[in-house]
Every structure is written in C-alpha cells, then in structure tokens.
Amino acid sequence: MNEKYLERKLVKAVRKSGGLAPKFVSPGFDGVPDRIILLPSGHIAFAELKAPGKVMRPLQVRRKKQLEALGFKVYCIDNTEQISAILQEIGGDAE
After folding, report:
1. Residue 95 confidence class, pLDDT cut points 50, 70, 90
2. What is the domain count for the chain?
3. Which helix (H) or strand (E) covers residue 80, if one does?
4. What tens digit of pLDDT does each residue of 33-43 get?
5. What is the pTM of this model?
6. Rounded CA separation 39/16 (Å)
7. What gap in Å lies between CA 51 and CA 6, rounded to an integer?
8. Element (H, E) at 78
9. How confident is the model at residue 1 (pLDDT cuts 50, 70, 90)?
10. What would the mean pLDDT of 22-35 be, rounded to a whole number?
C-alpha cells in the first residue's frame, strides 16, 4: 500500500460522507498537509498521507503544530483503517 492508494481511499470516503477533499497546494509555504477535508456543516480538517511506517518530515511536523495552534485538526494517515474513525471525529454525525 502506498501514499497514492491511501489518498484515493480518503477522497472516496470523504465524498461518500457528502464532503470534498481537495489537494492542498500552497506555493511559497512548504510542508503543508496533502489534503483539506471539508465536510457538511462547516467541519474542516487537514490530512497528511504517508505510506505505512513512514513519518512526517520535520517541516511537516512544524506546519501541523502551526495549524493545530490555530484550532484546526491535522491528521497523519498511514493506513486505511484510520479513515472512517477520523471522518467520524471531524464530522460528528457525517458518515
């Protein structure tokens, strides 16, 4: 299982929940998470996807802390089993 596979699974699960998971690209601001998760009723979070066993780079960890300091949830996803639990946590009643 690689990062691209996880990314496709996340996007599909978010769509099934009625949301969007656009790719997050921020020129001039490196280290941002891979995807923004947008769920119904204004629920927002960020996701960094990694192949199983891989960890975030130091810059990615700093960006995660910056976003969390602003009150956003940021997840590092490295297996498909995490996806449904994370979406439940972000969206509350979203399925």
Report:
1. very low
2. 1
3. none
4. 999 999 999 99
5. 0.92
6. 10
7. 8
8. none
9. confident
10. 96
pLDDT surpassing 70 at residue 94: no
**Residue 65 belongs to domain with CATH number:** 3.40.1350.10
SS (H, E, C) 8-65: HHHHHHHHHCCCECCECCCCCCCCCCCEEEEEHHHEEEEEEECCCCCCCCHHHHHHHH
Say how far apart CA 48 and CA 75 lie, in whole Å.
6
Domain that holds residue 57: 3-91
Report d(CA 23, CA 82) in Å as an integer.
Answer: 19
d(CA 72, CA 65): 9
